[in-house]
Amino acid sequence: AEYKKFGILYISLLVVSALTLLTSKMMDSYSNVMIFNYILAFFSLAIVLLSVGVVFMTVIFSITRFYKNLLKDEGYLMHTLPVKTSQLILSKLISFLIWIVASIVVLFLAISITSGGFEWITKLIDGILEGCNMINNADFTAFIIYIIVLLVISPIALMSQVYLSFALGQLSNKSKLGMSVTNSNDQ
């Protein structure tokens, strides 16, 4: 249900990245034409906004799908399936993780297209290595393992907290959605 929404975001980010690269190459040939500077600035801003939008919308769409599929009218059908509630929640969490990974891959492709290749990755790794050497010769392998663990655990913790908030909000007799997102002193 989500691939159409995400597909539009992904394709638009990749197209704007390609247009940015094209404009940058044209600026190299026609450096005295001022309009290319404005076009490049516009495309650069669009890439930043689309990149933030891809991550933000991935989270928002996943939260919305969880709420609609399990807690609204569609939830009646979902809960009639012969599976445990924990399996339904886990399926939504796995779906979210798949979309987050897809978003990260698209962001890496967009950065690579914009920069004209994958050399930026080696520069990034060299910069991280240099930073680790500057800070007391820290162990680079341990640092990378910590970063990877953090990148895996953070989205899971985020969505688990959102799912818990929705579950606690369902205990309210008044506004279930409102109680999911606010803390009320009425209870």
Please bin the fraction of helical residues.
over 70%
Structural class: mainly alpha
Spatial extent as radius of gyration: 22 Å
The total strand number stands at 0
Order of helices and strands: HHHHHHH
- The count of helical stretches stands at 7
How confident is the prediction overall: mean pLDDT? 80
Provide the β-strand percentage band.
under 5%
Largest sheet: none
**Parts with pLDDT < 50 across at least 5 consecutive residues:** 183-187
Shape: globular
Q: What is the straight-line distance between the termini?
A: 36 Å
How would you portray this structure in words?
The chain is mostly helical and 187 residues long. The chain contains seven helices and no strands. Mean pLDDT is 80; it is low at 183-187.
Question: What would a concise description of this structure say?
Answer:
This protein is mostly helical.
SSE diagram, text form:
Blueprint: H1 3-29, H2 35-71, H3 73-78, H4 85-115, H5 119-134, H6 140-169, H7 176-181
Give descriptors for this structure.
187 residues; mainly alpha
